[in-house]
Every structure is written in C-alpha cells, then in structure tokens.
Amino acid sequence: MTNTNNSPNLDSRIDGLSDKRKRLLAQLIGNSDEGSRAYEAPQNETEGKLANIWQKAFNRPSIGRHENYFALGGDSLSSIKITAQASLLGLGIKMQDLIKHPTIAQLAVFLSESGADTQTTIPSTRKEQPRAYIFSEKEQASYPLTPMQFGMLYHCKMEPNKPLYISQLQCEFDGEFNAERFHSALLYIIQRYPGLRAGFPSELIAERSYSVSHFDALPQEVFEVDNKEHSRADVMERAKFERLKGIDVEKPPLMRFKILNIGSSQFACIWTLHHLILDGWSQEIVLEALFEAYARLSQGQALSAQVVSYPQWNPSFHRAQTHKAETFWKTLLAGYRPLSGAGKDNALLLSQQSFQSAFSIDEPAGQNHDFNLELNYKEFPILAFSEQQGITPCAVMLSAFSLALFKTEGRMDSLMGTILSGRSGMLGEEVNSAVGNFINCLPIRCKAEDTTSLLELYASCKDHYLNLVEFEASPINQIQEWLGMPNLSKSLNTLFVFENFKGAHEFNQAGLPFSIENVRFNIMEHYPLVMTVIQAAASIRVVMRVRSTLVQEAKVQQLWSHFCRVFEAELWLKQDQSVGAVLLTLGE
C-alpha cells in the first residue's frame, strides 16, 4: 500500500502481511481453482458463441467454458463489449448476468433456462430499433447535443474566458520521430472521425445542436513541433500554458498537439483538447488509431480513406423511456435529504461556496491538492476477493469511499455523482468505434444501517451502479423535475470515477519506431472533490483531487484518513461485520 499524502499515520508502507491477510490470500487462491482449470472446450452452440465473444473482448486465442469472468480481468468495459456483441448474435445478456453467472458454462445454462438464447440474430442490414444512439454511415451537417454536452456548453458560455473542461495528455516518445509523418497521421485521424471536427454554436439555441466541419489541411495551431532542446521543466510550463490558454469551442478541431524536443532522440508530446468532443474511452480509440496510422506510414503503407460512422443522440428514445426512468429515479432517491448546509461541522464544503463557484478557474496556483494511493494486488487481492464474493472491484472501492463519507459526515446516507460511459445501448463493433462524448454524470446513492453487513453494502453498491446503466442517459435537469429537487445538481459536489480503459502507455505496437513513455493525464476539474479509481494491470490506483479553496481542509484530511484505513486495517475484508462495527473501528 503506497500512500503519497503526508497525512499523520498514513505515510508508511506496510512492510509485511499480517497472518490474517496471509490466510485470506491462501483462501482466495484456493477458491480460484474454477477460474484456473485446464482448458475445456465449449460443449454446445451457445457456449461456442459465448467463447468467441469472450475471446474477442479479452483478446485471447481461446477461453475455456469454466474460466471465470473476473479472473480474466472482467470489468465494466469488457462487459459492455460482451453485451454489445452478444445482442448481434441473438443472446440477451445484461451486465448483471455476467456477474451472477461468471463462466461461459454457467452463463449458457442461464440463457437456456431464461430463454434469452432464442432471440433472433440481428442482421447487419437490420432495421433500426429504438436506441440511445443512431449510427449513420452518411455524415450530417449537424448533430444533437447530448445532455452532458449541453451542460458543459452552458458552463462554457456562462464563463467564456475560463478554460473549462480542458483535458490534457502528456507523454514522451523515445526513438525516431518524424514530424511530417505525424502530421499526416493526425490529419488522417481528424478526417476519419466526424466527432473530431465538431464545432459548437456561439449561443445556446433551442435546437441544441452542433456542426461538423471538413478539413483538407490542418490549421497551423493544431500541430506544432519545437526542435529547440527543452528541459522537462520547460515541458511542464508549456503544458500548463496550453491548459490555461483554453480552446475556442466555435473553431474546430478543438485540440492542439505540441511536440517538444527534449534531447537524445526523445520528444515530449502535449495533447490538449476540449472535453466536449471526446470522453476518456474515445481518447483511447483516437490515440490507438493515431499511433496505428503513424506506424503504417513508417512502414510505407497507405492509409484507408474510410470515414467511420458517427453516433447521433436520439431524443425520441429517451422520451419513450420517460415513465420507466422517472419511476427509477424516484425510487432511488426517495427520502434522501442533503446535509443541512455547507460549512456545518460535518460538511466537506465551505459555507460561502456554492456548486456554481466550483466552475471558477481564477484561483491561485496550488488550489488543487492531490491525495494518492496505490493498492497492489499482491497485498490487496481486490480482484480475487471480488470474484469470490460475486461483486465487482468498482463496488469494493465505491463502498470503501462510502464508508469514509459515512464516518466523516456522521450519517450513513451519501449522495455523489458518478460517470457512466453511455455505450451500453451500442451494438457490436459500435462500442469500439464510436468517437465522441457519450458520458453522463448521474447521482449514485450509498445507504446503510448500523446492522447492514459490509457484504450487503458491497452488493448494494454493485446493484446501484449496474442499475444506473439502463438509465445512463437521463438528463440531470429532467431528474430534478421528476423529483421536485431543483438543487439536486448542487448536491453532486463529490464525484466518484471508476476507470478501467487502457492508458496510452499500452499503445506501443509493432511498427511504431518509438516507444511511448511517462504518460500523465490532467483535466481542469470543476468539482470540489473528485475520487478517481483506476483499475490497472497490477494494482488499483486512487487519486483524490480537491480544490482547496472550496473545502474544509480538516474534513478532507479526515475523509482521506478514513478511506486509507479501510485498507490499512484490513476492514475491507471483513465482509460479515456490520457497517456500524466497521465505522467504530475507523474512529480508533
């Protein structure tokens, strides 16, 4: 357990495992036998279909019928890919089904017994059924804004001189770099994906739409190479300058690439873009396509002129879903009462601040304070534990954060915002090819009683998170109307983000004449507190970023201390203990 914050009692690494943890590790390993059995081939048509889908989702040449979904590295990303592909083959699978039936053999039995394996296969020329997004091969001049895009654009128009929603990725190229080749690859990618050519209106109009432009050449400011040798300190200053410079949302493409020479065949790459056009998953797709194009050009290969179909927001689908969505949100948030006010003893926010003030970027340097924690799987077998208990790593981390909030705020009913991918309604390869901003920020509620067991809290967080997927496109203003809570969005000043898409450092591929190193990501956060959990290959990394001018620092320190103690004191493993007992231990 590595914690880089200097909070009292939290800066030391656990050198050895306790006897209890060693016993638990042995137990978890022992209970993973089913996931590590010798390969056994599919035994019927349904199992064969599932095996093919899983092999593609996990990028494996073969997967046996008894291999466990969680042991294979199953997460929300892979579940979306599996359900999307399954729908094309006539298999009605939901994310919850993968968790309850985590092997091909078990899932096939469930599908047979429920009749979900008898749906008609959807042909490639299918008629469009009601869906959240409509994909069209024919590019249009304009597209409807998603609710999240409209919200972002609203704040951009309210504070036009502030660099709101600016994302930035920094990395280094070690090896041969050809600027002309990179320029060609970048132009190709921008021409290929309509979402990268999106420009947004000067005023918020009733149609709530944006336009797509065409480019035969890159605007000069989009790509710049500085061959003068720079220090890494210079690079950091340039990156900061690019973030604070902002991006004019009316002038596509809403991105800039800056390449700086840092000596010895090394180059720093700074990619600055506006969050309006790309979510995190889409950034991954674009980077992978960019480096693939560069590699092909490096090998003297031609690039295809194909334009990728672009998903269009479908308002009629969401209007048809209104009654069901309204019932869901009213049930989820029934009886919730926000804390009586910011600035109270147990509140995280300062009294004079409002949610709207969180969107101001004119505060002095050092306003953000990052708390970092790394939980390696050897000491903290979160994936194996999740597999054993039939839950998800996301549920474990969300529950741990909820426990910390319960203790800090003095009540066992917390509401926070969380990010949904928006891709659950996409089919087949649409999941992997859709480039744009499809995410939504929605409320998630974590509630418990003194007698609730920790395992019940895990299960509740898992179910709440999965249930959000069906209604992941609900506009927050519509939810507020349904509930009669006009200030609901102001209660979402704490954001929980669970990420498991691959980072740019994984894009090193055959034919690329340089390696990609030292990846760093930065986004201009506008929430007072953001808890980001990143599920990586060898560990789970946690970054809690707070805006110091908006929070009560002592309460935030308590929150972080409680969160770390959940793992440091092995409380997360005590699934049979009551939440009340766990909270008492947190206070010791």
From TrEMBL:
The keyword Phosphoprotein applies. InterPro entries: ACP-like_sf, CAT-like_dom_sf, Condensation_dom, PP-bd_ACP, Ppantetheine_attach_site. Residues 41-115 form the Carrier domain. The keyword Phosphoprotein applies. GO terms for cellular component: cytoplasm. GO terms for biological process: amino acid activation for nonribosomal peptide biosynthetic process; secondary metabolite biosynthetic process. Pfam families: Condensation (PF00668), PP-binding (PF00550). Keywords: Phosphopantetheine, Phosphoprotein. Its cofactor is pantetheine 4'-phosphate. It comes from the Bacteria. GO terms for molecular function: catalytic activity; phosphopantetheine binding. This is Multi-domain non-ribosomal peptide synthetase. It comes from Photorhabdus khanii.
